[in-house]
Amino acid sequence: MKKLAKLGVALASAAALLTSVSQTALAADNAVSGGGPSRTIGNNPGGALHTGVYPDVFARTGYSHPAIDARVEGAYQQLFHGAPGTQANRYDGQSIYYQLTPDMAYVEDIGNQDVRTEGMGYAMMIALQLGHKQEFDALWNFAKTKMQLQSGPEQYFFAWHTDTTGKVLSTGVAPDGDQWIAAALYFASNRWGDGTGIYDYGTESEQIVHAMWHESDHGGVDMFKRDSYLPLFTPPATSLNYTDPSYALPGFYKMFAMADPSDKDLWDKAYTAGENLLQKAANPVTGLAPCYANFDGTPYMRPSETPTDNAYDHTFQEDAWRAIANANIDAAWTGVKPWQTQYSNNLENFFEGQGVSTYVSRYHLDGTPLTSGQNAYEPAHAQGLVAMNSTSAISATDKDKKDFVRDFWNTPVPSGQARYYDGMLYMLGMLYDSGNFRMWLPQSH
């Protein structure tokens, strides 16, 4: 959303690719009539990596599986194949997916009229989860051909944004985008198998994942710092020596350790560090995290900023919304931990006090609403934050957690000028809450 924020937690699997679900786990999960392991209510604190059961908070809230499926499909069709909008600015459209050539497509940030690795990674993951291989390949073709840096100290990383023709606008790197692209490729390899050339998904994923720790081997800057095991905000700009809590994707790091076993020790440490950052960055009362943070989790502030100003860096705004889902997808995949439950309970308690269906979207970490920063074209009760808040029901024990799921269910699919960021988070939220954000793993797992 902001230029420095670089805008910006997906993964569908068949039960056969996961560890068989035990009868004990299924019984505890309260399976819905007519469903199998993948169509349960999904009240599973043990983590899908161990049981194969994914939380379905929509079903737990009382929505039927046909209604859930229709809602997910409807959101996908609108955001990927809805009305494109007028060519002048597309503000009046619905879709964010556009075909550049018959075999190449991109997702556009409508408000800024550019293409960002964050959105490309999200869209690739969404297409992967829902089984849309044609769209996946077209998006990957654009990212590989137009955005990936093929030489120099940032080799295999991606330029964080281009124009809609693929012209690179900045060779800076957004670690969240690269992580989402690499994870989507890894799961594509396991779901569809590897093809040739750029469609050898497994090799492409391993190449990107390996580079995250090894650009320094040939004069570049690594994406992850070895003293903190956290992503640098924007390599290779080491002067920007801080991170972004929403760039911490611990659930992905379990997958990256499988994609590149030579660095398993590093990814294990990154997993722990990522969980710690998400925990420490959150205000202990409100649960609100800053958009940017120092590596110890404290809010990042530039020399010109003060704790009480409305600067994007150290307040809860668009980037920080994603930290909520990052913590809860880790819980869904690897098991709910006490800190995640406390974190989600804190968030829900805070937003209940603000009004579940009326809270605004930008705050100081102590819960004071910001007095500026709202774009005129964005709703005050932003759909992206509504989607992210609903994922707190995965790990929360708060008695009113279903209210956040209902609020999301009753929220229309974003359209118009703000549909890129809110739309991507909305679509991901649909996958998270329906149990469709799954891990495609090797058959030997």
From TrEMBL:
<keyword id="KW-0732">Signal</keyword>
<dbReference type="Pfam" id="PF01270">
    <property type="entry name" value="Glyco_hydro_8"/>
</dbReference>
<keyword id="KW-0378">Hydrolase</keyword>
<keyword id="KW-0326">Glycosidase</keyword>
<dbReference type="InterPro" id="IPR002037">
    <property type="entry name" value="Glyco_hydro_8"/>
</dbReference>
<protein>
    <recommendedName>
        <fullName>Glycoside hydrolase</fullName>
    </recommendedName>
</protein>
<feature type="signal peptide">
    <location>
        <begin position="1"/>
        <end position="27"/>
    </location>
</feature>
<dbReference type="InterPro" id="IPR008928">
    <property type="entry name" value="6-hairpin_glycosidase_sf"/>
</dbReference>
<dbReference type="InterPro" id="IPR012341">
    <property type="entry name" value="6hp_glycosidase-like_sf"/>
</dbReference>
<comment type="similarity">
    <text>Belongs to the glycosyl hydrolase 8 (cellulase D) family.</text>
</comment>
